[in-house]
Amino acid sequence: MMHTAVGWHIEMEFMEDDEHTRAVAMVRLPDGSEVRAHGHASRHYTDPNQPRVGEEIAGARALNELAMQMLDKAHREIDETAGRVSHPIHV
Questions:
Q1: I need a labelling partner for 31 at 20 to 30 A (CA). Which of 9, 50, 53, 91 fits?
Q2: DSSP label at 31?
Q3: How far is the C-alpha of 58 from the C-alpha of 60, rounded, in Å?
């Protein structure tokens, strides 16, 4: 049995100021569709300014939202193909 390798490339962009970090995650799927998600992190005024930490938090939140959107997309496709409501996919 032969398997076809498929790859997804996820792009991340960050916008930052002294107190906030915003992240946008985007994946282009083989069918040509794109899924985008956003994440946000805020620095408490007593914390040191560590942009890398804000990127990690905002990025993780964006990737988590992207994952949830991908699960929703998969459910819709299962439901459309099967003609019934699919069981939830738990993460």
A1: 91
A2: T
A3: 6
pLDDT at 91: 65
Of the candidates 72, 63, 54, which has an alpha carbon nearest to the alpha carbon of residue 26?
A: 63
**DSSP bridge partners of 27:** 10, 35
pTM for the whole thing?
Answer: 0.83
45: buried, middle or exposed (CB in 10 Å: 19+, 13-18, 0-12)? exposed
Q: Would you mind telling me the total number of residues written for the chain in this entry?
A: 91
Judge contact between 19 and 57, C-beta under 8 A.
no
Closest CA to 23 of 46, 48, 55: 55
pLDDT in tens, 38-65: 999 999 888 888 888 999 999 999 999 9
Cα 58 to chain center, whole Å?
Answer: 11
